[in-house]
């Protein structure tokens, strides 16, 4: 078994990098705070005797040697970046539980057949740079390294520039390092496990995701002198679209979700009718056909609103991640480990995207979920119990041992 | 008659301070660009032999001496600040036409009985600091100087700090300088004069204005894992409120207008359900009772949306300007000057707020409007013809002469 209090202590220790007054973490990918936690992580891994390498997208790999170094390593890990209103567990638990597994194996003097690998993937969150999970997508061959290096944040800074700004661009070619299997521990980020009183989620796959960038263009005019019928108010077009997006998701209840997360008025002023707004959309469902249907309905709604209000509504799909089934053998291995440890459990599908969803396209992959309070995530109040974190880390340990010694 | 081509040349010359690629001006009050045009204005006034003073809120006063210096000066002027998407005429025409009047009187060797005064009021637009027309409001006694100095922009900079940053805080106590009458030339900023083919608007008053600051508070949560019914999405609450505000104004057609000009999501991210939004509202009508009714309806709509969506909607009225009737004697003087010059004209009520609306609370005041293209203002494409600008300046000249020599 892992040491639950040591795991909890590292969770609390690293929460200081980007820690917020409300008890959350604001540690956007490749920010100075992300640089701090990366430095901490490298030092902690080296102290634990792991060999740390970094690839051209900044992803950190920490290797624990096995008896048979001809076998590809069995890997775990997640991410250390957060949302602007992030909590202390999303992604971080998966990385620090992996570190705790390595420390516990050392304490017990256990050597595995296959080597073990602990990974901290760059930009899982997708808040600063879109898409989410971009380094693991490049690892899996969904993008080239050059494509990812060229992505820019809202301030115009490229991934390449951001990597160099914190000195985190490594020498390893992305995807060059073989991985035999990948297991990611994560908080559920949803309400199901808690509601059912289950400790472990045995994750069967991830739902599909579509991301869009959009713009509404009207005409700036004087708030005091422009009669209502003459207005081309971009904010009112956006308002109707946001409500249409909600109705579209509700039309595919209970599985579908859709969110307008960002909306920025160009040159805003209190006494100017808004003329220009940029926005982003996120649509998800476990079924590919439902994603298709939602996108069609979105485009119809935008066309109707634009025509009626004399506005230009542009919508561009910038990313689509198909629903991902995980490896049935690995799912069974997680289930067996949870059973052996005596933890209550249920099968579950992930609502969030994870690096594991990308890895699944290249190597046998699965995930382990533990509950989080009220199902809340991407919020500073995100919370999980020490006992659940330890239970998840134990299941991770036993799953990795089973795979590495098989 | 004034020199129309000299007036046009000064309009085009000063348009370079904060000039935008699209042909407009972005010259927010007390910005470096506003500092530049203020320096230009002081130098131009001094070259024209005027005595320039500056008050504690940065308002510039340029005096042309009269035969009887015991009489309070007859004043004109407007403002040189603009909206972020401002044009080349809003406010600027009134100041530069005043300068042209002074230059033309010099050319013709005319001395007036009462002295003349040309004023450039600080922060008419209200875009950077609320409320609009704040220096003229302080002049008229609606606010103390200290209240205005303490107002802050969105970046937290106070008026006092902004004045000092461009060295524009003057020694004169605000309101200390007597004014005998005030006449402001301005573009109409609406479509009426153009539609009716009239050159001069004889302005009888300004409509009422109410400004509000508001916030919608929900709860940040994960865009992929939070089921639609569990969401407390602040952006959807804002969307419903924006559409309710539109309906409220439409319910008092055709006179009322209402605008949500600003809306800023706190900590926005594509895959986070928005939890916090700040916004501003602008509501106007020529009738005080209609302003009351709109505010009541606004608060009812906010309460209903908040209760239904489990959101906190806060709305604070930060400014209210009652409808203002102008001085009937001065209105008649403008009418007479326009008639004597042979310009087509009509009576009109101003949809925009103007410094004149504040001055009217302390001294006899009126305004002169000239048409602008398509009624468009607060837009970089704002446009007026050289002939209409010259006609307005001629009416200003003759109105000032009539008042100063009466
Ligand atoms: N796990 C997680 O929050 N990932 C961020 C990407 C997403 O929006 O699903
Ligand atoms: N004239 C003008 O645009 N004033 C700005 C204040 C307002 O919004 O009416």
Automatic annotation (TrEMBL), chains A, B:
Residues holding Zn(2+) 2: 90, 125, 378
UniProt keyword Metal-binding present: yes
Domain of life: Bacteria
Residues binding Zn(2+) 1: 79, 90, 186
Keywords: Hydrolase, Metal-binding, Zinc
Molecular-function GO terms, alphabetical: hydrolase activity, acting on carbon-nitrogen (but not peptide) bonds, in linear amidines; metal ion binding; N-carbamoyl-L-amino-acid hydrolase activity
EC numbers on record: 3.5.1.87
InterPro entries: Amidase_Cbmase, Bact_exopeptidase_dim_dom, Peptidase_M20, Peptidase_M20_dimer
Domain Peptidase M20 dimerisation: 207-306
Cofactor: Zn(2+)
Leader sequence residues: none
Cofactor: record remark: Binds 2 Zn(2+) ions per subunit.
Enzyme class: hydrolase
NCBIfam families: hydantase, PRK09290.1-3, PRK09290.1-5
Family the UniProt entry places it in: Belongs to the peptidase M20 family.
Protein name, as recorded: N-carbamoyl-L-amino-acid hydrolase
Gene: amaB
């Amino acid at each position: 078994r892992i040491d639950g209090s040591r795991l909890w202590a590292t969770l609390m220790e690293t929460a200081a990098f980007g820690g917020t007054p409300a008890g959350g973490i604001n540690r956007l990918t490749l920010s100075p705070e992300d640089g701090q936690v990366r430095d901490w992580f490298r030092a902690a891994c080296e102290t634990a005797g792991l060999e740390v390498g970094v690839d051209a997208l900044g992803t950190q790999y920490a290797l624990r040697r096995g008896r048979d170094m001809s076998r590809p390593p069995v890997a775990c890990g997640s991410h250390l970046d957060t949302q602007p209103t992030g909590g202390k567990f999303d992604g971080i638990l998966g990385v620090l539980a992996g570190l705790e597994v390595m420390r516990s194996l050392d304490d017990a003097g256990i050597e595995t057949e296959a080597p073990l690998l602990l990974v901290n993937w760059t930009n899982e969150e997708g808040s600063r740079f879109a898409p989410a999970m971009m380094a693991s997508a490049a690892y899996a061959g969904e993008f080239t390294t050059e494509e990812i290096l060229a992505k820019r944040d809202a301030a115009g800074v490229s991934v390449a520039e951001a990597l160099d700004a914190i000195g985190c661009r490594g020498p390893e070619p992305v995807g060059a390092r073989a991985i035999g299997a990948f297991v990611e521990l994560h908080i559920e980020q949803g309400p199901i496990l808690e509601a059912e009183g289950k400790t472990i989620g045995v994750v069967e796959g991830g739902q599909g995701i579509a991301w869009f960038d959009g713009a509404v263009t009207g005409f700036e005019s004087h708030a005091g002198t422009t009669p209502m019928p003459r207005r081309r108010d971009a904010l009112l077009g956006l308002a109707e679209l946001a409500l249409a997006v909600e109705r579209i998701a509700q039309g595919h209840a209970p599985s579908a979700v859709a969110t307008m997360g960002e909306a920025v008025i160009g040159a805003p002023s209190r006494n100017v009718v808004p003329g220009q707004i940029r926005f982003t959309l996120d649509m998800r469902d476990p079924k590919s056909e439902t994603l298709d249907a939602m996108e069609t309905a979105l485009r119809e709604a935008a066309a109707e609103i634009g025509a009626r209000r004399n506005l230009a509504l542009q919508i561009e799909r910038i990313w689509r991640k198909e629903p991902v089934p995980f490896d049935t053998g690995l799912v069974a291995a997680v289930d067996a480990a949870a059973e052996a440890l005596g933890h209550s459990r249920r099968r579950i599908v992930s609502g969030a995207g994870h690096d594991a969803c990308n890895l699944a396209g290249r190597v046998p992959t699965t995930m382990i979920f533990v509950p989080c309070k009220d199902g809340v995530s991407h919020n500073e109040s995100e919370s999980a119990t020490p006992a659940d974190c330890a239970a998840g880390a134990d299941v991770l340990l036993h799953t990795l041992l089973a795979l590495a010694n098989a």
